[in-house]
Amino acid sequence: MPELFEIIKELCAADGTSGDERAVTKLILSMLPEDCEANVDALGNIIVFKKGEKTPKNRVMLAAHQDEVGFIVTYITDDGLLKLSAVGGINHEVAVGRQLHFSNGTVGVIGGKAVHQQSEEERGKPVKLDSLTMDIGASSKAEAEKYVSLGDCAYFESNYTELGDGYLREKALDDRVGCAIMIDMLNKPLPYDVTCVFTVQEEIGTRGAKTAAYTVHPDYAIVLETTTACDFSGNDGEKRVCQLGDGCVISYMDRGTIYDRELYRLGFDLAKKSDISCQTKTLVAGGNDSGAIHTSVGGIRTVALSVPCRYLHSPSCTIKKSDAESTAKLAYEMYLALCEKS
Fold first, then answer.
1. What are 82's strand-pairing partners?
2. CA 24 → CA 15, 236, 287, distances in Å?
3. pLDDT-based confidence at 111, cuts 50/70/90?
4. Burial track 260-297 (b if 16+ CB lie within 10 A, e otherwise)
5. pTM of the model
6. Predicted pLDDT at 117
7. Looking at 202, 225, 325, 333, which residue is catalytic?
8. End-to-end CA, the chain
9. At residue 63, what are phi and psi to the nearest 5 degrees?
10. pLDDT score for 99
11. 3 is catalytic
C-alpha cells in the first residue's frame, strides 16, 4: 500500500463534488484491503468495518468526507458561454481566471469583465459568480452542448505540488486528507474492531454524515478534517485561527458543534503522552460532519481532529505534511483510548 502522501495525491486527483462523488468512491473502494467489509449506502456513503484482534468496549466510528467544492452548469448562453453555480462555499473572487475541467475532459476558464472595462463602482464591489461565465472555446450554444450539459459539474484544475520545506498544495485536500488517514489506518493490523465512514455531501450541509451515524450508531465518533488556517500576513492574534506546523487541531467549538469537553481534554492528554504536536483554534468558525453526527440517534459523543489548511476551498489548498502525520497519529491514539474507555 502506498504511504500516506501518495494516497493523498491519488485521492486529490479524483473529482467529486457533493452529490457526484462516484469517481472518488470507486477509488477509495479500490484502496481498501480484503479484510474490510465495505458497503455503499443509498446516499453514497462508504461504510467500512474492519475486524480487529479484539472486540472493543465501545463502538468507535471514524469519519471523513469524500466530496469537494466545485461548480455546476446552470445555463448556456447563445454565444456558447456557461453560467455556473457554486457547489459548496467558494469565495467567488477565487474563481476569476481559474481553469476548470469536466469529467469528460472538457476544459475552460472562468472570466468576466476586464478591470479596465469596469466602472469605478464595479471595481469597488465584490465579484459575484452570476457576473462570471466559463469559456470552453465554443462559439454557439449548439457547439457548447456537444461537450457540456446542464447539471454537469466542473472542478478546479490543479496539480499536487510540494512547496518549500515540507508543504504541499492541491485541490480537494478538504477532505481527501481525512480520507487518506482512514485508508492508511485500515491497511494496517488493528487491535480493535473499527468502523470508518467516508461520507458524502458534507460541503452542502453534512447530509451523508447524518444518515451514516444512524446506520452505524456508534458510542463515539472521531471526525477527521481540515480546518482553516489564516497564519499569513495581515492576520494577527486570534484571527490567525491555527498555524501550519503546530500540529493537529483539536476543536472545542465551531458553528455547528460544541465539542464533548472530556474528549477535547483527552485529545490533549493523549498528544502530550505520545509526544504528538497539537493545537486548538483561536476563533469559533466553520463546521464539519460533527454537527450532524453529534445530534444523531440519541446523541453521539464526538471529537474533531483537523489538519490546518491555508486557502481552503480553492485550487491551492496548502498544508504542512508534518501536521497530517500528527493528525494521523493522534487519530490512532484516540481510537485506541475510546475503544478501551470505561
1. 76, 134
2. 6, 37, 22
3. confident
4. beebbebbeebbeeeebbbbbbeeeebbbbbbbbbebe
5. 0.94
6. 64
7. 202
8. 34
9. -140, 140
10. 95
11. no
